[in-house]
Amino acid sequence: MGFVLVQFLTGLASASSLFLVAAGLTVIFGVTRVVNFAHGSLYMLGAYLGWTILSRLPGGPAWFAGGVVLAGLGIAAVGVLIEVLLLQRIYKAPELLQLLATFGVVLVVQDLVLKLWGPNDLTLSRPPWMRSFVQIAGERMPFYDLLMIGIGPLVLLALWLLFTRTRWGTLVRAATQDREMVAALGVDQRLLFTTVFALGAGLAGIGGALALPDGSANGQMDLTAITDAFVVVVVGGLGSLPGAYLASLLIALLQAFGIVLLPKITLVLVFVVMAVVLVVRPNGLLGRKLTLARGEANTLALVRPAEPALRWLGVAALLLAVWAPWFVGPFALSVMTEMLVAMLFAASLHVMMGPGGMPSFGHAAWFGLGAYGAAFAVKGLALSMPAALVVAPFGAALAALVFGGFVVRLSGVYLAMLTLAFAQIVWAVMFQAVSVTGGDNGILGVWPAGWASNPRVFYWLTLAICVACVLVLRRALYAPFGYALRATRDSALRAEAIGLNAGSLRLVALVIAGAAAGLAGGLAAFSKGSVFPTYISIDRSVDALVMVLLGGVQSMAGPVVGALAYTGLFDMLLMVTDLWRLVLGLSIIALVLVFPQGIAGTTYRLWLRGREA
Amino acid sequence: MTILNVAGISKSFGGVRAVADVSFSVAAGEMLALIGPNGAGKSTCFNMLNGQTAPDSGRVTLQGRDITGLSPRRIWRLGVGRTFQITATFASMTVRENVQVALLAHHRRVWRFLRPAFAWFGAEADGLLAQVGMAEQASRAAGVLAYGDLKRLELAIALANAPALLLMDEPTAGMAPSERVALMRLARDLASQRGIAVLFTEHDMDVVFGVADRILVLNRGELIAEGDGPAIRSDARVRAVYLGSGATSGGH
Amino acid sequence: MLNVDDLHSYYGRAHILQGASFALPAGEVMVLLGRNGAGKSTTMKSLIGIVRPARGRIDFAGVDIAGWEPHRIARAGLGYVPEERRVFTDLTVLENLEVGRQPARDGRPAWTEERLFALFPNLGRMRTRAGGRMSGGEQQMLTIARTLMGNPRLLLLDEPSEGLAPVIVEEMAGAILALKQEGVTVLLAEQNLHFAARVADRAAVIEKGRIVWTGTMAALHADEAVRTAYLAV
Ligand SMILES: Nc1ncnc2c1ncn2[C@@H]1O[C@H](COP(=O)(O)OP(=O)(O)OP(=O)(O)O)[C@@H](O)[C@H]1O
Ligand SMILES: Nc1ncnc2c1ncn2[C@@H]1O[C@H](COP(=O)(O)OP(=O)(O)OP(=O)(O)O)[C@@H](O)[C@H]1O
Ligand SMILES: [Mg+2]
Ligand SMILES: [Mg+2]
User: Are strands C78-81 and B165-169 parallel, antiparallel or unpaired?
Assistant: First the structure.
């Protein structure tokens, strides 16, 4: 009994720390509609800064509290810096571009932390009051955890009062709905947004510093925190503070007990919970249907097929690609093969994200399923490579058909997070079904058939398949299907009223995207000769997202250019510097600022302008 | 011939009776106006007719067929076109493409993956656009149209399925006065030539009294009057809750 | 009060305002008339700064405000009521008013909630109702009241009568005349000529982004040629 109680209280304590991070995220999203990927980084910086401050202060509780608040203020200042220097310039850009920019910040912060605080985990030497215990039902409960339990509800109450009882809160809630109108009423909405961002960042910083006594400051905490925080925010309902607290409780308690009862699935428990919640409640526990905030760039640009001159450019690039194996070395050739696979992968995501209007955070699921499908086909079923390359897309498409039914009913960030949940579940299955998948060791020896074993031949094969698939996808998007799909994105109301079935259109788009991603995965398996669970990792999903956004979501040229630029940049940086994250992050940020419509989108606009002038 | 028959439909939103026991019918070729104060329940009525909202009770019959509670998709296929009070069009497409998509849906050609969409029903789309006076703007992006032009585009889309019943929710709001009458004359001609039944709401009394064959007045969800122009104009209750003195609405 | 000179505005590359010029004396009500897409709303948006004018002067009480941020312009005493109402649907009537609050200026008495409820009695009866649960007419009143909380010297009203029942339009006309009594200058964009005739002192006709005619309402009434050429009534 005592054990259950202590486990319960421990759950409550971790709910508080979850809530601190999630509250900041949900406040920022609610007001600015920025999906702040860098929120985990702010949390991590909070921990490091907290360590620097607290390890220099005397050990008393008051000093501790002061140090934590100071760390929070420091991180709030960092938040202001990010908001003013970066986000303020791109509020008017397409929605997901801010996400890309904050992803750049994630990379930059990772390297900065490494430079400033070194690679080792930093722990705080805990003074006696922190190490003390309280006897509860015969078990020992850390005093610090009891403190933490109180902090969550306290912060919730404070935030609630701030948002409902002050003029600032009223203005912020108004700006959430219509920032342009707020400005037209004489309110400096820029200042409003900066303060909101500072508040959110400060909460993350405090959360990070408060996590120190129970753990350490380390270089992995940004990604763990951001995933947890996103799950909490989405389960609770975007923008809802009480929802975030409720979700923190739910998830922390499930984790506290899950680790004891179902140790095998703790890795994905939160994602399973999130998937179930989203399937039952598409807007989270306490969330409401998101309406587009007014005053952002919600007028969608006209989509046009490329003009002849640009098509010739494409043909020229293709000829160059066909010719390339004769004058590049083996390493460059393998990089180029990788680029082609990335291109198809990104193009498949574009089908969902662009015309489908379904951003996905878990697109690697289909890629990974294709790769594992191909590997099974060759190793398990002893099929030939061509047969395996048929199995790959069909396997992925089948899975997309099954999952897709749940996914297409949602929208926006909810939809993206549900795809992430599925990807994580697939990942966990591949990771844990050791007897079939080899678990972490993967499946090795997935080599191409004899006739394609020459890297040049395999490169040409990949080129043919990838380019053909991208062209077919593009064609479908300009065919009636693509238009109907885009219609459901532009106005669901009107689409329904002219007899379009949004659900099935979106589902078919998802299945097509899944198949194409699966094929890319199959090709990747053969080009590397192996498959690992990392094929389904969050990193890979983020890669796809970055490629599409970097290129631009407007047309098929976007993901193609984005994939080539990103993989090219990535491989080049790996070679020339060990600060590649810093440089890559800064490059992404620079690209976002220079090409607010993505590289292809912005270039195309400039080109059009040049011709019309 | 009766196209639409509505029998005692009601709808409440959390205790508020938005529409209470409303019955009427519309004949082929007839222009029926539904007027009433803001919040009287006109749009809610429309939503129940095209399947956007399911009525709590009552029956809606289209050409003898019970369509109560069907989805908007099914109802559109049965021949009901509608324009929205707050316009809803596809902003990433041109004006012509907006109509083409509606035509693709109407002719069941959505599941085509190869032949480019612009090659489908272009002439038919241009024909519809010409009818509503949007031919010159056919290649403009729908997202940048002026409000009045959006309304016209909406009408072209609503006509794409060759409807038997046309529902127009404030079709001329925001349009210039001369264009209002022109647009409604167009609707009037379509109605009589093709035998389309037209049900519309309006707050512009020049339009209502100018083109409607018959007028229904809704107040707080209930029908309070029905009749032709002169009868409605002289109804004291309608004057009090809706028409007022007529000083700012052209003396109606 | 307001002196607009050679104002140019763009949406992207589309040149919408092509040198609009007009003047509005203090204390008067002027109506901007024109076809759909002529640029009435764009003029309003350029004045309040939501659309940043590319060229031209906007002289407001002796200061050139062209190119300022919207919040600065609003604080300088320009109030804007947009075409599509745009109340904050999640906020109550009182909270909506709070968002609009700005300090009084010119030593004139500030608008308070109570004075506004006297002007718009309907609103006074639903102080804590959420904006999203009000009828179209009530929302329109609320947007005007909300803007008045900023104590504007010049009020921009973009099609205030659109979508409103005739009785409400009559009330609206009464409210605008009452504002004029209070000394507020009003620039109005309208399609409803009956309404415009009731409230306005003078008119400006806009066509393809240029002001092509200005004069008193009486002159407009007499000038058949202008009305058929640009307003087609
Ligand atoms: N989804 C909803 N939830 C709650 N109340 C609603 C909803 N839709 C409409 N209402 C309410 O039902 C009533 C009728 O609204 P409706 O939109 O039908 O009015 P209307 O007659 O079209 O008015 P207007 O002329 O202003 O467009 C109003 O009181 C409105 O607030
Ligand atoms: N966001 C936009 N992007 C591009 N063009 C636009 C945009 N908004 C308006 N326009 C164009 O600018 C022109 C003027 O529009 P505006 O809204 O000022 O007209 P208006 O006179 O207010 O018309 P209405 O009577 O319909 O309200 C129109 O041709 C319209 O198509
Ligand atoms: Mg309505
Ligand atoms: Mg306008």
Answer: unpaired
Residue C198 Cα, ligand 3 centroid: separation in angstroms?
Answer: 26
Residue with tokens 């008013």: C97
Longest dimension (CA), chain C: 50
DSSP secondary structure, B75-99, as one string = HHHTTEEEE-SS----TTSBHHHHH
Model confidence pLDDT, tens digit, residues A152-207: 999 999 999 999 999 999 999 998 888 889 999 999 988 999 999 999 999 999 99
- Regarding the domain delimited by C2-230, which CATH topology (the fold level of the hierarchy) does it fall under? Rossmann fold (3.40.50)
Nearest by Cα to A94 from A235, A296, A268: A296
Strand, helix or coil for residue A220? coil
Measured distance CA(A236)–CA(A256) in Å, rounded = 19
* Residue A295 pLDDT exceeds 50: no
The DSSP bridge partners found for residue B27 are: B2
- Judge if the beta carbon of residue B48 lies within 6 A of ligand 1: no
The verdict on a CB contact (< 8 Å) between B110 and A480 is yes
Q: Is B245 in the pocket of ligand 1 (CB under 6 A)?
A: no
Q: Tell me phi and psi for residue B225, to 5 degrees.
A: -160, 155
Partner C contacted by A610 (CB < 8 A): no
* Nearest CA distance, B31 vs chain A (angstrom): 22
Q: How do the domains of chain B map onto residue ranges?
A: 1-79+163-252, 91-162
pLDDT tier at A356 (50, 70, 90 boundaries)?
Answer: very high
Interface of C with A in 117-176 (CB under 8 A): 146-147, 150
- In chain A, whose CA is at the least distance from the CA of C82? A181
- Please state which of the four CATH numbers 3.30.2310.40, 2.40.50.100, 3.40.50.300, 3.60.15.10 is assigned to the domain occupying B1-79+163-252: 3.40.50.300
Alpha-helical (H) ranges within A498-598 are: 502-528, 538-551, 557-576, 580-594
Q: Quick check: CB of B80 below 6 Å from ligand 2?
A: no
Q: Is the CB of C135 under 6 A from ligand 1?
A: yes
Q: Which chains touch B (3 or more CB pairs under 8 A)?
A: A, C
For A542-562, letters b (16+ CB in 10 Å) and e give bbbbbbbbbbbbbbbbbbbbb
Say what the pLDDT of residue A90 is: 87
> Does the pLDDT at position A55 exceed 80?
yes
What gap in Å lies between CA B174 and CA A581, rounded to an integer? 53
CB atoms within 10 A of CB A381: 10
Enter the DSSP assignment of A134: E
Q: Closest Cα partner for C2 from C35, C19, C27?
A: C27
| Mutation to test the A interface, candidates C71, C146, C147, most A Cβ within 10 Å | C71
**CA-wise closest residue to A249 among A5, A3, A6, A18:** A18
Does B174 lie at the interface with C, CB-CB under 8 angstroms?
yes
Please say whether the beta carbons of A472 and A479 come within 8 A.
Answer: no
Size of interface A-C (CB pairs under 8 A): 64
**A575: confidence class by pLDDT, cuts 50, 70, 90:** confident
CA-wise closest residue to B35 among B182, B193, B252, B248: B252
B91 vs A496: CB contact, 8 Å cut-off? Answer: no
How do residues C34-78 score in pLDDT, each as one tens digit?
888 889 999 999 999 999 999 999 999 899 999 999 999 999 999
The residue type of B43 is: S
B47 within ligand 1 shell (Cβ under 6 A): no
Whole-angstrom distance, CA of residue A57 vs CA of residue A63: 7
Q: Is A56 on the interface with C (CB under 8 A)?
A: no
Identify whether the C-beta of residue A64 lies closer than 8 Å to the C-beta of residue A206: no
Whether residues A185 and C150 touch (CB distance < 8 A) is answered with: yes
pLDDT at C124 over 70: yes
Please give the average per-residue pLDDT across A223-247, as a whole number.
92
Alpha-carbon distance of A605 to A598, in angstroms, equals 11
Contacts of A176 (CB under 8 A, 6+ apart): A30, A31, A239, A293, C90
